[in-house]
Design a protein that fits this description.
The chain has about 240 residues and is α+β, with helices and mostly antiparallel strands. It is built from three helices and 13 strands; from the N terminus they run αββββαβββββββββα.
């Protein structure tokens, strides 16, 4: 009987000792985790960098600027926006092909034209800031939860073309394309940020949504529609 009692006593003592060791291990792991997280946040290791783009429902005049939103917990430095468009060389128009051109388009020859034919590929877009007589802003720092507009295209119902902006905005533009539907990509990059490529649809015949996210997912389209209604009713 005494042997049994001694055996049980040693068992409970051993179990209590293992429990204390487990508690000590959990405490040490928790402290280490908190310390590592603090070091990571201070050093920038765990800083998250992310962006989003809001597409316009309606533009101002013929311009339809998009909005680059910093959804990170740190400032995005040296942000740049570029565009690629899937189109044929035969889609490129010359000034003589333009119907009812604006005064800006009469005297300005685009970068891409009949003697310099190429596809719009990874071309720089300007930010929408009013720089008056100075060159447009091409690189920008965007603070946490802040946003900045950038220009993509101009289009009007009476035009037979869509004007794609260049790093000089419309002075001169990048190219005049036939007024039809295109697919493309908005490229967003920043310092120490791997960047993001956002597929888009350019439909200049759609006056309310001439540029939008490309998606075949019905749920995503429904989400964007709901978000559009919420944003519209918020202002």
């Amino acid at each position: 009987m005494s042997a049994l009692i001694e055996s049980l006593s040693s068992y409970f003592i051993a179990g209590k000792f293992e429990l204390l060791k487990a508690i000590q291990f959990i405490f040490q792991a928790t402290v280490a985790s908190i310390f590592i997280t603090w070091i990571g946040q201070k050093s920038g290791i765990f800083k998250k960098k992310n962006t989003d783009i809001r597409f316009p429902e309606k533009g101002t005049g013929s311009n339809y600027p998009c909005t680059l939103v910093n959804k990170s917990n740190v400032q995005l430095q040296e942000c740049k926006v570029k565009i690629s468009i899937t189109h044929e060389l035969s889609d490129v128009l010359n000034k003589s092909d333009l119907n009812n051109p604006s005064v800006w388009d009469i005297d300005r020859k685009p970068y891409i034209h009949e003697k310099n034919l190429k596809v719009v590929n990874y071309e720089t877009l300007p930010f929408s800031d009013d720089t008056k007589d100075k060159d447009p802003i091409l690189t920008k720092n965007i603070n946490v939860n802040d946003q900045s507009n950038f220009d993509v295209l101009d289009v009007k119902s009476e035009w037979n073309y869509v004007r794609i902006f260049s790093e000089k905005k419309y002075n001169p533009p990048r190219v005049y394309l036939k007024k039809k539907r295109y697919s493309g990509i908005i490229h967003v990059s920043a310092k120490d940020y791997k960047g993001k490529n956002i597929p888009i649809i350019i439909d200049p015949n759609n006056e309310e949504f001439p540029i939008a996210i490309k998606s075949s997912n019905i749920l995503i389209k429904f989400r964007n529609w709901v978000c559009g209604i919420i944003c519209k009713n918020s202002f």
